[in-house]
């Protein structure tokens, strides 16, 4: 008798503060000879979910790749800024020339050549439909590259501004 008292139906209880709110116990009494353990053993079969749909293919249209919010512009500019910042600092340390002297002494031709090669190398995989995130793993993720590029852009501008205000090389 004690085991069947668990399955007793409780009367409807109405709270005095909110008369529209009620609580009901939906438990049922065991059927003839049925126990609690046999009820748990007859759980309905769960159907397996279908596999998730494949990831959408990345658009390789020229207007999508080079759109303002597309995958190419910020990455290419960030890569150029990373190369530019490191090379500007390396030339400055080795020869003592500031950024403006480096640009005046043939830096424009080197910049244009580097820009063309890096832009083509960055665009070829994107035009083939390879997503930027598909090749990133571990420490070298696509987000880390974006942040490094942003910091390099700020660093290059800060370097040029500081050298302009100072009137000479930073190092």
From TrEMBL:
Subcellular location: Plastid, Chloroplast thylakoid membrane
Chief place of localization: plastid
InterPro entries: Chloroa_b-bind
SUPFAM superfamilies referenced in this protein's UniProt entry, alphabetically: Chlorophyll a-b binding protein (SSF103511)
Region feature Disordered, mapped onto this chain: 29-57
UniProt membrane topology term: Multi-pass membrane protein
Pfam family, one: Chloroa_b-bind
Entry GO terms, CC: chloroplast thylakoid membrane
Record field: compositional bias (Polar residues): 29-41
Keywords (A to Z) from UniProt: Chloroplast, Membrane, Plastid, Thylakoid, Transmembrane, Transmembrane helix
Claim: Phosphoprotein is one of the keywords in the record: no
Family: Belongs to the ELIP/psbS family.
Protein name in UniProt: Chlorophyll A-B binding protein
The organism of origin for this protein: Lactuca saligna (Willowleaf lettuce)
């Amino acid at each position: 008798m004690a085991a069947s008292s668990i399955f007793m139906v409780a009367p409807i209880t109405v709270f005095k503060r909110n008369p529209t709110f009620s609580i009901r116990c939906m438990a049922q009494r065991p059927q003839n000879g049925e126990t609690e353990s046999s009820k748990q053993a007859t759980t309905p079969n769960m159907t397996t979910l279908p596999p998730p749909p494949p990831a959408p293919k990345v658009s390789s249209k020229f207007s999508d790749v080079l759109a303002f919010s597309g995958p190419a512009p910020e990455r290419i500019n960030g890569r150029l800024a990373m190369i530019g910042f490191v090379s500007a600092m390396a030339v400055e340390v080795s020869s003592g020339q500031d950024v403006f002297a480096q640009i005046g002494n043939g830096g424009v031709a080197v910049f244009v050549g580097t820009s063309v090669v890096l832009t083509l190398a960055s665009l070829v995989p994107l035009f083939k439909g390879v997503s930027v995130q598909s090749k990133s793993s571990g420490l070298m993720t696509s987000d880390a590259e974006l942040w490094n590029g942003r910091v390099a852009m700020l660093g290059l501008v800060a370097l040029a501004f500081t050298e302009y205000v100072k009137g000479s090389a930073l190092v």
